[in-house]
Amino acid sequence: MTSKTWQRPFLKWAGGKYTQLADLFAHIPAGKRLIEPFVGGGSVFLNSDKHADFLLADVNPDLINLYQMLALVPDAVENHARWMFEHMGHPDGYELIRKEFNAQTLDTTERASAFLYLNRHCYNGLMRYNLAHQFNVGWGKYKAPYFPFNELKAFADMAHNCVFMTSGFRRTIDLAGADDVVYCDPPYEPMPGTAGFTAYAAGGFTWDDQELLAERCVEAHKRGARVVISNASAPKILDLYREHGFNLEFIKARRSISCKSSTREVAKDVVAIL
Q1: Cα separation of 129 and 161, whole Å?
Q2: Cα(118)–Cα(104) distance, integer angstroms
Q3: CA-to-CA distance for 136 and 196, rounded, in angstroms?
């Protein structure tokens, strides 16, 4: 039996699931529709052959705008982004694009292209905003950022089965019912003694949010949905999921906020299932 070839996402994404897909899909059940309240870089939906339709949400309006524009006018977004890659691939060009992006002067297609450019040129692909919703990550110093042409085509081939919406997890999970599978990949609860990266939105992702997420998932399960959540195996998280009746599985995780690949530690993640 040959091993499956996984489709890389076209975005770099902190906490992206590409390296864990084989382990994750062992626990994500089949169903008519896959709902992702934290779609992020999209590794999971891009690789699912277990679902016919997809409801994909995130609180980042720029991310959802990029997905929507690529679904509607892929050539326009690609051409504009390619021009930026070819002509603005230097620190001054980066600062100019970031300034225009933050000034909110670009139309929706240009903004989508700029988001893709910033993602591929900024430090570690971190899409981080300050409290004024200004994108504030610096130049990544990459020699020749990769233009993800093939990855964009793979997305375009399945976009007609996808609905994208800018939404918090509460509203998204409330839409789940029978025949739906909900896969949640929230900002991970930091392990004891670590800071972690929980910049879900300008206000962060709190412990109250972790609790509410578990509660909303239980409610969705009562309505007939299957539910899967991945998170760090922090003791508080394991207790929370056990209290709510989830079955717990553990998979190997690769933490990759560190820039040098040699310093990226391997840890265990929990996969909680209802």
Answers
A1: 30
A2: 15
A3: 19
Q: Which helix H or strand E contains 184, and what residues bound it?
A: strand 180-184
At 91, give phi and psi (nearest 5°): -55, -40
Q: 18-59+167-273: which CATH architecture?
A: 3-Layer(aba) Sandwich (3.40)
Pairing status of strand 266-273 against strand 247-254 = antiparallel
Q: How far apart are CA 271 and CA 247, in angstroms?
A: 8
CATH of domain 65-150: 1.10.1020.10
Q: How far is CA 215 from CA 50, 96, 174, 211, 265, in A?
A: 25, 44, 11, 6, 31
Are the beta carbons of 209 and 58 closer than 8 angstroms? no
Classify residue 180 as exposed, middle or buried by CB count within 10 Å of its CB (0-12, 13-18, 19+).
Answer: buried
Domain extents in the chain = 18-59+167-273, 65-150
Prediction pTM value: 0.92
C-alpha span between 27 and 182 (Å, rounded): 12
pLDDT value at residue 204: 78
pLDDT in tens, 107-120: 999 999 999 999 99
pLDDT number for residue 199 = 52
Phi and psi of 166, rounded to 5°?
-80, 115
